[in-house]
Each structure stands twice: as structure tokens, then as C-alpha cells.
Design a protein that fits this description.
Blueprint (H helix, E strand, L loop, with lengths): L1 H5 L9 E4 L4 H26 L9 E4 L5 E5 L2 E2 L14 H26 L2 E7 L4 E7 L6 E7 L5 E10 L5 E10 L6 E3 L4 H8 L3 E2 L1 H7 L2
Parallel strand pairs: 8-11
Antiparallel strand pairs: 1-5, 2-3, 3-4, 5-6, 6-7, 8-9, 9-10
Helix pairs in contact: 2-3
């Protein structure tokens, strides 16, 4: 009958895989946003360890230990200054401050490089009849994030849902998921529709098409 003809019969084949390309524009936006976030720890480090010495723009007041205090609008600042008005910093504070800045720079570079090199992969393991969703960064081997075993009644469900953008505006989006009787759905994203069918070998149905097909 028609219902049995719609059942998907698996034939072992070679592995198939598709990967997303690096989105340069999205990567740049992500790096810029993370750069704004990095401003806060940068300010904290420079304010805590005074990596860049303060300069006294007020009156220098000589102290008994040979250093100077800065009197700025009637307020004596706690830092010590030399005769030129430059703050005197302990060597240990300078080393710690620059080490913290170096660590911040290292984290910034690693995170940004991870954003730029992120790729998503959809792979069908032919001999196991399993679909894998994987993510790779830094041009390394992709790691499996989710997997689903495809079965006789598996199919790709195509449906619409309401989403909201960053401005709070509602819009309709088309989504895809793999459905198998008695199991949780497997959400698909980041790839065009034709990739889902070519990699998995499954048919795509809307809810209405599925009901009509099995009527």
C-alpha cells in the first residue's frame, strides 16, 4: 500500500558529509562584540595594578621618604610620585599588571580565533546508518555534539515557528527536524534543505503532507 511504500528502506553506502563555510561577516561582528566585552577586564586590570603610571596634574607635596604626594583640588591622592609628577610603581606590581594583560590578550586571541574558525558538520555514517551533528574549531577534527540512529520510519519534518529578533520583532522561520516513532526529535539547522536530504537520504514532509501521504 501507499504507507508501506513511503517507509524508508536503508541501503548501506559510503559516508556522506556537508560542512558550513566560515561566515566572515558574522565572525567579524562576533569579534567586535567580544572586543567590547574585553574592555571591562582591561579597565579592571589597569585600574588595579596601574600598568600605566598615573601623572599628577595638581600640586606635588614633598614627603619625608623623598617621594612626593599629589594634591589635586585639595585632595591628597594615596599614590607616591617622583619629582616629575610620574607615579612610582613597585616592580612587582608592574610585572603582575603586564602578566594579567598578557593573559587577557591570549584569551582574547584564542576566543576570537575559535569564533572565526568555527564550522558545523552534518555527517551520515553509512555502515551504522547514523546521522551526526559535529562542530570543529581551530581547523581541528570535528567533535560530535549530537547523533541520531535513522530507522525505517524516520523522516524529516518541515515546519514553521515564530521567532523574535534582537529588536523584539516577531517573524516566521522555517525549521527542520528528524522524526522517528517513539524517539525524541533531532533538530536540524545551519544547512540548506537540499543538504538534509542528500546526506541523510530521508524524505521531507510538512505535517499536512505527511498526513495526506498516509491517508
Amino acid at each position: 500500500d501507499q504507507a508501506s511504500s513511503a517507509e524508508w528502506t536503508y541501503t548501506p553506502r559510503e559516508m556522506r558529509e556537508v560542512s558550513t563555510k566560515v561566515d566572515v561577516f558574522t565572525s567579524i561582528i562576533a569579534v567586535v562584540c567580544f572586543g567590547f566585552v574585553a574592555v571591562f577586564p582591561f579597565s579592571f586590570i589597569t585600574d588595579t595594578w596601574h600598568v600605566f603610571p598615573y601623572e599628577c596634574f595638581g600640586e606635588l607635596v614633598a614627603q619625608e621618604d623623598g617621594t612626593f604626594a599629589c594634591n589635586d583640588y585639595g585632595i591628597t591622592l594615596p599614590e607616591k610620585y617622583d619629582a616629575t609628577g610620574q607615579e612610582i610603581l613597585p616592580l612587582s606590581e608592574i610585572i603582575i599588571g603586564w602578566a594579567m594583560l598578557g593573559l587577557l590578550l591570549f584569551v582574547f586571541v584564542v576566543v576570537c580565533w575559535g569564533m572565526v574558525t568555527k564550522r558545523e558538520h552534518l555527517r551520515h555514517v553509512g555502515h551504522e546508518n547514523t546521522l551526526l551533528y559535529m562542530v570543529s574549531r581551530f581547523n581541528r577534527e570535528p567533535k560530535i555534539k549530537r547523533s541520531v540512529a535513522l530507522k525505517k520510519y524516520s523522516y524529516i519534518r518541515k515546519y514553521t515557528e515564530q521567532r523574535r529578533d534582537n529588536d523584539g520583532n516577531s517573524y516566521t522561520a522555517t525549521s527542520y527536524e528528524i522524526n522517528t516513532r517513539g524517539e525524541r526529535s533531532f533538530r536540524l539547522h545551519s544547512f540548506p534543505e537540499e543538504d538534509y536530504t542528500s546526506v541523510s537520504g530521508l524524505q521531507i514532509f510538512t505535517d499536512r503532507e505527511r498526513d495526506e501521504y498516509y491517508r
